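User: Could you go from structure to sequence for me? I need the amino acid at each position, not a summary. Structure tokens:
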């Protein structure tokens, strides 16, 4: 028996029904997933307080209910305009239902030690799963789900650790690196939004699987992703639908599949594969879209100079309400900082190093692991300077700030060679990565 939608007044809803659409855009409600089961009385009250009618999936309800008589309201947008040839779409602010306020429970050093095997395990799980899917077999998703759970736990405890490891680790395959790093950026953003751990798990595994369709594309096309001809780009765009088809029958939830299918859609309708607009794109897919785009800008590729993370953040900011919804962009920047973890920088006194973490209250003053002195001589032992703390009691003339961001691969700046704590110890980031 197939699934079909029916319109129903909210006062006729019952626990156990599956709500597949609303009488208003999803972003105007506190429901973070497009499509959900009504499991408690609180769920019913929440729907009643925001909607007059909803659409339910009949095959997933306990009984067939008659359709209400109200006419369907259009999914209206507050305004649309043109700016420099790019359409701007203004939407009301997002409303996250029962947002979680996470605190950094563990210091960076401790979390690095805890998560040192995590990305290796994640890459192994991805490679096996992708190979199974490519062989047109039903994949075992349990290893990927377990890795995602560990990633979520790490990010909720201390978001900078997994970011640091993912930014400094060498991967065997571009697709795996892209999927994993996209997942980490997305989880850090989801944490900032206050998504609960269940939603973060859906988001994480969706990001890991979002790139599976690229397994069917020529490797040369992936390396030249930003330099494709019109015909090549037409082929490239098919990877989302190919991936969705490859994952059919795998038992993935609607929330996870919404990430796989929707991570390349864009706020103003300029994305693919369906070209849907901001008020129709599920929240988790929106978060994944920002993360995937950001990673594509800063990821090193053969023969191409990646954008510095700071420039990528600036570009994202310029895309507010164009390709990405404004409050999501702002949440992403709040989560990763103006100078994201892994950004190579030169300080105002000439010292050079890499951003280790940032302070939410002082986004222009991150913590920097200094690797070269003012004369660009390498340090035997790196030192970490928390610019926010260092500048606390300084007058303007004494402030130590970021002078500029340096390109990837700047000579002598290899974070993997130094101790991220800046203290004498028996472990180093290089050892952690290579174990």
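Assistant: Here is the amino acid at each position, in order:
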């Amino acid at each position: 028996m197939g699934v079909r939608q029916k319109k129903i007044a909210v006062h006729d809803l019952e626990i156990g029904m599956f709500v597949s659409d609303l009488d208003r855009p999803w972003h105007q409600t506190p429901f973070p997933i497009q499509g959900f089961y009504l499991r408690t009385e609180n769920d019913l009250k929440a729907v009643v307080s925001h909607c007059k009618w909803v659409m339910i999936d009949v095959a997933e309800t306990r009984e067939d209910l008659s359709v209400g008589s109200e006419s369907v309201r259009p999914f209206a947008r507050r305004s649309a305009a043109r700016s420099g040839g790019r359409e701007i779409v203004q939407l009301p602010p997002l409303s996250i239902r029962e947002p979680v306020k996470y605190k950094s429970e563990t210091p960076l050093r401790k979390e690095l030690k805890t998560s040192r095997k995590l990305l290796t395990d994640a890459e192994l799980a991805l490679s096996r799963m992708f190979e199974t899917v490519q062989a047109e077999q039903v994949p075992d998703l349990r290893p990927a789900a377990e890795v995602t759970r560990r990633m979520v736990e790490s990010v909720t405890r201390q978001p900078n650790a997994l970011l640091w490891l993912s930014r400094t680790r060498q991967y065997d395959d571009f697709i795996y690196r892209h999927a994993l790093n996209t997942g980490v950026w997305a989880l850090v953003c989801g944490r900032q939004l206050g998504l609960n751990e269940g939603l973060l798990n859906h988001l994480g595994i969706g990001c890991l699987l979002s790139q599976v369709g690229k397994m069917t594309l020529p490797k040369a096309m992936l390396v030249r992703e930003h330099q494709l001809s019109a015909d090549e780009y037409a082929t490239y765009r098919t990877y989302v639908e190919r991936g969705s088809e490859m994952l059919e029958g795998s038992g993935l939830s609607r929330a996870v599949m919404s990430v796989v299918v929707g991570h390349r859609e864009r706020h103003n309708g300029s994305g693919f594969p369906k070209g849907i607009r901001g008020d129709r794109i599920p929240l988790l897919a929106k978060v994944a879209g920002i993360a995937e785009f950001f990673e594509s800008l800063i990821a090193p590729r053969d023969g191409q100079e990646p954008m510095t993370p700071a420039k990528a953040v600036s570009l994202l900011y310029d895309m507010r309400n164009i390709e990405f919804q404004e409050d999501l962009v702002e949440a992403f920047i709040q989560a990763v900082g103006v100078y994201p973890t892994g950004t190579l920088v030169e300080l105002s006194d000439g010292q050079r190093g890499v951003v280790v973490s940032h302070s939410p209250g002082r986004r222009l003053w991150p913590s920097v692991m200094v690797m070269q002195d003012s004369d660009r001589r390498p340090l035997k032992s790196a030192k970490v300077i928390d610019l926010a703390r260092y500048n606390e009691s300084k007058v303007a003339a004494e402030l130590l700030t970021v002078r500029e961001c340096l390109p990837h691969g700047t000579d002598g700046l290899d974070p993997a060679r130094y101790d991220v704590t800046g203290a004498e110890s028996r472990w180093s980031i290089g050892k952690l990565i290579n174990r």
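One structural detail worth keeping in mind: The first helix runs from residue 41 to 50.
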